[in-house]
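User: Teach me something about this protein's shape.
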Amino acid sequence: MENERNSRKELSGIVTSISGDKSIKVTYKYKKPHPRYRKVINRKTDVHVHDEKNDARLGDRVEIMETRPLSRLKRWRLVRIVDRAPVYGGATTETEETAAAE
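Assistant: First, the predicted structure itself:
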């Protein structure tokens, strides 16, 4: 059983959309030679991913793993968040607001 789980595909990509509760869309990029001309072409694919804890944010670099079908489109699950995306001009917390007022 453990060997079967380890043989599943693992990919790394960037979160491009947060679709709904426990769902994200991840884009992963790869290079592929053109069939006739052999020039290397940059390609990308979007996959729907199951995010059980709703941890991923837009722009995060994540690691995903292939899994059984979880819904009509979701065939991947989030393994871990590799890098967090920076947050620009986000909402401030109450402690920051009170510190600024004093």
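Now, about its shape. The mean pLDDT is 89. The radius of gyration is 18 Å. If you'd like, I can walk through any region in more detail.
User: That's plenty for now, thanks!
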